[in-house]
Amino acid sequence: MNDRLDTILADGVSRVCSAAVALIAVNGSVAAASAAGELVRYADADGTPAGERPPALRDSIFDLASISKLFTTVVLLSLAEEGRLDLDEPVARRIPVRDGRITLRHLLTHTAGLPPTRRIDLELPGADAAARMAAMLETPIVHPVGGPYLYSDVGMVVAGRIAELAGGAPLDALVRARITEVLGLSGTGYRPASPARVAATEWKAERPGPGCVRGEVHDETAYALGGVAGHAGLFSTAGDVLAFGEALRRGGGPMLSRESVAEMTRDQGAEGAPFRHGLGVRLGDPAIVGPLDGAYGHSGFTGTSLVVDPGRRLTVVLLTNSVHPVRGRDGIREMRHAVTAEALRAADLDL
Fold first, then answer.
1. What pLDDT does residue 351 have?
2. Which of 16, 95, 115, 330 has fewest C-beta within 10 Å?
3. Residue 293: closest CA among 267, 311, 279, 319
4. What DSSP string runs through 182-249?
């Protein structure tokens, strides 16, 4: 099966991305794995070839972008299990939000009425991360509280801050203690110590250092907040993301209880979304699940996706850097669908 997955990734490199790693697990065992391309292909936005072009390997590290939201959600649910917070308590009990009706459940279902994003780096160019976070927490409501659905990175930034206050530690420490150390995910974390294994992302003239962004979070808001935020900032390998997805598929242990995973993956009734929505997770998102209509997961702006299909015993990971050297490249949706279609084939062969 690797030959078929090799072909899919080879077709995507360099048309869709410069580097790609994919893993398909059926009933807990890797059925297909592939890596293609180069971690750094371009030196600038004009497509000048990079001087050094290390190959993408199975253990290469990618900026997960919004897949980080799933890790934030798991931290929050683990805190809820311990009674440190309540999904339905007013957020205003902990932070100075503009509307006292907002709950953590609203934040995790993108129904809090907060805007999609906020370029706090441009608003407060001379401020430190703490001042910028304080301003993010006071972001005005732009939509009705309770819905309809409005995808909001701002809401997940607020959710991440609530996790810190309830957990008594920074978000990166909570993710480490409650997820990565528990599951043994040695390649997962915020702010990588070295860029050597990391795939490059976008050319950003405003960032320090030569070349495209590498080893720093791509997302501008997460970068402005110090590299750790509820909506983005995590880096990981395909194997680690697969292990995280498998833990959810099997019921959450040792991160969460089965009851928490069931609540996380239950349709929360967010009206107006192009898919059903759980807590921090998308159910049947057509952009990533392809033919796996019973699956859940999340995608990332950098070109990443995690898809979990409990009914078919499948976990599917695709990590790419489709924003390298610039964003807006076509084909990532089709590439994701091709990988999930191959996963469906693997599941059928395993019957």
1. 61
2. 330
3. 311
4. HHT-TT-EES-S-STTBPP----TTSSSSSS--SS-S-HHHHHTTS--SSS-EEE-HHHHHHHHHHHH
Contact 299, 16 (CB under 8 A): no
Distance from C-alpha of 211 to C-alpha of 191, rounded to nearest angstrom: 18
Distance CA(223)–CA(157), nearest Å, equals: 12
Cβ–Cβ < 8 Å for 335, 318 = yes
Over the chain (351 residues), the average pLDDT of each successive run of 10 is 94 96 98 98 97 98 99 98 97 90 97 98 97 96 96 98 98 98 98 97 93 97 98 98 98 97 98 96 98 97 98 98 96 98 93 61
Report the chain's C-alpha Rg in angstroms: 19
Phi-psi region of 84 (alpha: psi -120 to 50; beta: other; left: phi over 0): alpha
Say how many CA atoms lie within 13 Å of 195 toward its Cβ.
Answer: 15
Q: CA angle at residue 104 from 99 to 107, to 5 degrees?
A: 75
Strands of the sheet containing 234-236, edge to edge, are: 62-63, 234-236, 189-190
Q: How far is CA 199 from CA 17, 64, 158, 215, 320, in A?
A: 11, 11, 28, 8, 8
Structure tokens at 106: 């609203």
CA–CA distances in Å: residue 183 to residues 50, 186, 252, 255, 258: 36, 9, 11, 8, 16
pLDDT score at 110: 98
Per residue in 114-173, pLDDT (tens digit) is 999 999 999 999 999 999 999 999 999 999 999 999 999 999 999 999 999 999 999 999
